[in-house]
Amino acid sequence: MVSGHIFHCRRNSWPAEEYVGRTALQLLDFDGGAPPEQAWRRKLNSDANLLKEFSVTFMEAMKMMTLGLRLWSYVREEASHGRKAPIDPFTKERCRPSASQGVPLGGMGSGSISRGFRGEFKNWHIIPGLCESSPVMENQFSIFVSRDGGNKKYSSVLAPGHHEGLKKKSDSGISSWDWNLSGQHSTYHALFPRAWTVYDGEPDPDLKISCRQISPFIPHDYKDSSLPTSVFVYTLVNTGKDRAKVSLLMTWANSIGGFSHNTGGHYNEPFIAEDGVSGVLLHHKTAKDNPPVTFAVAACETQNVNVTVLPVFGLSGENHVSAKEMWNTMAQNGHFNRENFSAGSSTPSSPGQKLCAAVSASTWVEPHGRCTVVFALAWSSPKVKFQKGCTYNRRYTQFYGTSERSAVNLVHDALTKYKLWEEEIEKWQNPILKDERLPEWYKFTLFNELYFLVAGGTVWTDGQPPAIDEKANPGFNQQKSSKRGTKDTKPESVKESHVNLTAEQIRDSDERSVSKFAAVHGSQMQEQTNGGLKSEEPIPYLISKDGPENVGKFLYLEGVEYIMWNTYDVHFYASFALLDLFPKIELSIQRDFANAVLYEDRRKVKFLADGTSGIRKAKGAVPHDLGTHDPWHEMNAYNIHDTSKWKDLNPKFVLQIYRDFAATGDMQFGRDVWPAVCAAMDYMDQFDRDGDGLIENDGFPDQTYDAWTVHGISAYCGGLWLAALQAAATMAHRLGDRHYAEKYKLKFIKAKAVYEAKLWNGSYFNYDSGTSSNSRSIQADQLAGQWYTASSGLPPLFEEHKIRTALQKIFEFNVMKVKGGRLGAANGMTPKGKVDETCMQSREIWTGVTYAVAANMLLHGMEHQGFTTAEGIFIAGWSEEGYGYWFQTPEGWTTDGHYRSLVYMRPLAIWAIQYALSPPKAILEAPKVNLMDRIHISPHMARAISEISIRKVAPDNRCFPSSAFKCEC
């Protein structure tokens, strides 16, 4: 909890009037047309510089040569099956990354489309795990203005014309359009989930225009936040003496990015809906049997606004009106023929042919008058299919059904409800935006980093079991198929409790928990062998018992370059955003991992780092991720190392469980996941080889820093383990499990003494207890366990002066000795004040880790250090003088600004800073009692624990009967 005095900040660091004239701002200040004071800003004529990707040193390349060869072989093997490997450093995008991103469109989990700050629609993430980064240049907004009886005319695409792909103006495609916007007097303002583009006298000197982009990302709203739609509200102000006829045009291609239009079979059709909503549907037939997508492009007709459409135009002029002819019609008339609404469906496209559609909205704006014109985009792809055959219904189908034509209802509701969405968004954001204690850069960066929950490849299902794709599973018995119903034809219900996997668990739950899908899918797996290993248990669809409201199941990628769902060691940092804004989703994810802990998958996997083989998922081990091509059924897509030997995953699971338990006060959640907590803790006994209560690392990168080797006891993993012991003991006490409360407290006492004795050097905790050249390095993340301890309202792990001393050391060395604190916190520094060059990860600045370190500083009253540390990420990643990583924040960068892994999950950890500033009510109001002091260790327990020899045994996975739980808060 931080103090109430003024934080380190610069007031008005991004004043709007430096980007837009004050007069224009005042004129547009009605109906939401003016951008807010706190927003990220860019001029439209700003250069979109190409980004610099990291490269390894010669020595690093030599060390990783054998890994590279194995990875190359694995990537090729996956490609032979038509799949993309989860990590593929060899295949580069056709479109090189540039500093051109902006706020993405739509809600969460239904596919996403990003929009660059200059107006281009790009980064198409409709099919899970696949991202087409190139912009579709036919997708544009344009304007046509006519004054003084037609003697004055202006026309332009509302985007600068210096885009790649635009050819000579003489052709019949989009290059023939008027690309007259220089962008010099136009600006972009971003405050996720909204963005404003202000055209201050471009292209008409007497016309002020604001385009406001709104998407339904609304905290705690588990319905509208799942909708694949976005609204574009145009505010027009005529400052001239003449009446102006203004026609706005939205054009859209029948494409989901890249060369998807080449498959053919796509068609368009016009529609007229209720409340003046009308537009065009674009039906897209995807490749490789992926579910189809239907776009709806529409505008809202009012008493002052007239809407017309051109259902189809092409680029070449063959078979359809050409793009040039379409443009000339608008330039001459300002609208299309109203008879086009009765045109019906177009002829399906031929392979290689790109179909486009146009929607026009025309209005008259009186001298010194104002007008609003509203467009909307929606896309309906009700089913999400993964590459190994499982298909699910998306979350929004709970409310709109599974027909692709629900795009009409989606776009209608967007056009009629967007003002209500904005009210909720402002109610959420205003308390933070108006908090004068906070730095300006922090306010808008906090919200804008949430872009990842839309653009990070998120999938949000309705929570029901999947259908099986018989083509992907040729041995599947169709008579046993658990086929899904739609909204109108409901499937046979699935019982609410989670899938139990062992005989003992099934007996304890009266055999009520195994879904039909798990039984069918498992019957296949029992017959399969892989490398001599037989699958002894069914692969489950982890059906979570979510309490009174099933909010569905949620996936988000580690990053668009690391295609693994819900990567747990990274979710440890990112999860603060979900816990704060969508806590039911966070608990659903935690239930998935709790169920996964108790599950074993004995299929054989080859680990690429050393070439050894092992089982895919060990019982008691927390999975690294929920999979790639068959999430929930085939976990641990990561195969560089054997993550069952990682030392951070299990403690991170326990810490997140306790934090969520404490923050939500959900006792039922605590009872449900407690068996998994015990199993995860007991599993770690095998890594305490000398019986001192503290786990040891094994001389390889066995934690989230998976290229940074650790020897013996480590500050990072050892600290996480200490925190997990305290959290587990406290949770056991609160749930009435006295045996485990005593057991974990005793271990904590022993481990704490060893940890401090072996690692504390007087000013910080050494990187590890080994004798390597970097064992005394200063790791920025060394107090990650204490960070979670403080975030959960638990007693500090160490004396306060040690915590603050270590954090101050990190601030002085890892932060301020790296470009004066303008880059964030370097992962490793030597005691001499140089960046640790042991490996590529030790020398990197990790964005999410920097935010986490800043949050930890704030939790311990170090406001100046905390905000200075976090500001380095803003300066390097988001400011005009930085590297151009806005809305694509990478995992990390080097001291010379070379990035690694764009669009990454971990930077969501900025919400840990907000969590530190405003802790949950349940933690703030919790009794100020040290529950660890209430745990009394009996002499019998002390003797029993001390006499236990450390054995490598399977974890204790017993489930506790409900009678064992007695709440003691």
TrEMBL record:
Residues 485-498 have a biased composition (Basic and acidic residues). It is an enzyme of class 3 (hydrolase). GO terms for molecular function: glucosylceramidase activity. It catalyses: a beta-D-glucosyl-(1<->1')-N-acylsphing-4-enine + H2O = an N-acylsphing-4-enine + D-glucose. Residues 85-105, 465-500 are annotated as: Disordered. Its EC number is 3.2.1.45. Transmembrane segments: none annotated. Residues 102-421 form the Glycosyl-hydrolase family 116 N-terminal domain. SUPFAM superfamilies: Six-hairpin glycosidases. Residues 552-913 form the Glycosyl-hydrolase family 116 catalytic region domain. Keywords: Glycosidase, Hydrolase, Lipid metabolism, Membrane. InterPro entries: 6-hairpin_glycosidase_sf, 6hp_glycosidase-like_sf, B_Glucosidase_GBA2-typ, GH116_catalytic, GH116_N, Non-lysos_glucosylceramidase. One of its GO terms (biological process) is lipid metabolic process. Non-lysosomal glucosylceramidase that catalyzes the hydrolysis of glucosylceramide (GlcCer) to free glucose and ceramide. Belongs to the non-lysosomal glucosylceramidase family. This is Non-lysosomal glucosylceramidase. It comes from Urochloa decumbens.
